[in-house]
Amino acid sequence: MDDRTYTADAEPGDHVTVAGWVHEIRDLGGIAFLILRDTTGKIQVKFEKDEMDDELVETGLGVHRESVISVTGDVEEEPRAPTGVEVTPESVDVISEADPELPLDPSGKVDAELPTRLDNRTLDLRKDEVKAIFEIRAEVLRSVREAFRELGSTEINTPKIVATGTEGGTELFPITYFGREAFMNQSPQLFKQLMVGSGLERVFEIGPIFRAEEHNTPRHLNEATSIDFESAFYDHTEAMDACEYVVKAAYEGVAQNCAEELEALGLAEDFSAPEGDFPRLTYQEAIDEINATGELDEPLVWGDDLSTEAEHVLGQEVGEHYFITDWPSEIKPFYIKDHDDDAEISTGFDMMHPSMELVSGGQREHRFDHLVSGFEQQGLDPEAFEYYTKMFKYGMPPHAGWGLGGERLVMTMLGLENIREAVLFPRDRQRLSP
Ligand code: ATP
Ligand code: MN
């Protein structure tokens, strides 16, 4: 089957079979052009009606747009063709005929709304600028994997069906597991921590997280891809260094390997990897800076979480990726360690893009008795987490790590307006299929 030549590889003088989708047919009377598209690009197929076999011309020009065909013939130079070459067909095979009524126009001449696009992703990803998002997403994942390996960490996969949640009960999706209540995991947090105490010591995971988020927003999904990292003997500052390294690697990979995709998205000019160290502001500095702008109706006080509006105000001020450190302990989860000299302040940090939060992390509480009392303070039953807490009794090193939202990384990198554009088949409050 795949003895075909990709359109991008067809050179003048070659005799080829090219195969793909009918992008467009332009009939100029005596001569007509069929533009054939495959994953590498497009090629022009020329039909000279008077000089060619009638049946060949009929087959080639009678086929509906977006049908899959193959064309065999000679490649010749043709400066007026879009790619500088054209194929003169000897034979045309219609492999899979497309219905003339398409739910979405892959040539992009007719705009489609996001829901229509998501319902017809197969057709939607025939557009260069949509395909480009997913090529870039793949490059981001490749680059972060490589960066994690350079950091000496081991890729792990932890269960997505679990008995307990970690990030607060309300955001859990319950399921039935052989008659017992179970949940879709919100985060690999506890499992990755268990692995820093194992012989692996430094681990990462790229996998789905499930959150029954209450609100429909442009930056929340109910199923997202979390890029998680955790290392033994790291403190929060070392975890931040690793975070910066991995995020920069993602940008650098895209800058180096995705020129065509960036071009398709109209980003070729302005795309660059962040340079220099990401500024690190304490939470106190962050709220002072936000309050000083006077842009919020109510000034923020110690203990307030940062609203979307507050994040935007601060992002405008800072203008690049940055960290917020030293959060109030009361608004960070129980597994985050407090500073030794001040229990009001935690080692928790967030890494921010100017437009939104990308990462949360921190040094973890590795002392058994502190951990157990943290559970109680957060209203969680330590008994239910015995599988986890128990391992803190058998030699658990100090450790730190973070979780990075994969779709948010792609979204902010490419300036996408809606996080759903960075997922093939997003799950949100309305969308369960496809
Ligand atoms: P937010 O406050 O923005 O809703 P969060 O603080 O609840 O996020 P964390 O539990 O800190 O999220 O998760 C770590 C990272 O995972 C976030 O910084 C974000 O990049 C990503 N993330 C979390 N929840 C979602 C979601 N529902 N959809 C997409 N990405 C998410
Ligand atoms: Mn967070």
Please describe the topology of this protein.
Elements: E1 15-27, E2 31-38, E3 41-48, H1 54-62, E4 68-77, E5 85-96, H2 114-119, H3 121-124, H4 128-150, E6 154-155, E7 161-162, E8 173-177, E9 180-184, H5 189-196, E10 202-210, E11 223-232, H6 236-257, H7 259-264, E12 280-282, H8 283-293, H9 308-318, E13 322-325, E14 338-339, E15 342-346, E16 349-353, E17 356-363, H10 368-377, H11 386-389, E18 399-405, H12 406-414
Parallel strand pairs: 3-5, 6-10, 12-13
Antiparallel strand pairs: 1-2, 1-4, 2-3, 4-5, 7-9, 8-9, 10-11, 11-18, 13-16, 14-15, 16-17, 17-18
Helix pairs in contact: 4-6, 4-12, 8-9
The structure holds adenosine-5'-triphosphate (ATP) and manganese (II) ion.
Task: Characterize the structure shown.
The chain is α+β, with helices and mostly antiparallel strands. The chain is 28% helix and 27% strand. The protein has twelve helices and 18 strands. The strands form four sheets. The protein has an eight-stranded mixed sheet with strand order 6-10-11-18-17-16-13-12, sandwiched between helices. A five-stranded mixed beta barrel has the order 1-2-3-5-4. Strands 7-9-8 form a three-stranded antiparallel sheet, with no helix packed on it. A hairpin with a 2-residue loop joins strand 14 (338-339) and strand 15. Helix 4 (128-150) crosses helix 6 and helix 8 (283-293) crosses helix 9 (308-318). The protein is elongated and about 90 Å long. The site of adenosine-5'-triphosphate (ATP) has 15 residues, from strand 11, strand 17, strand 18 and helix 12.
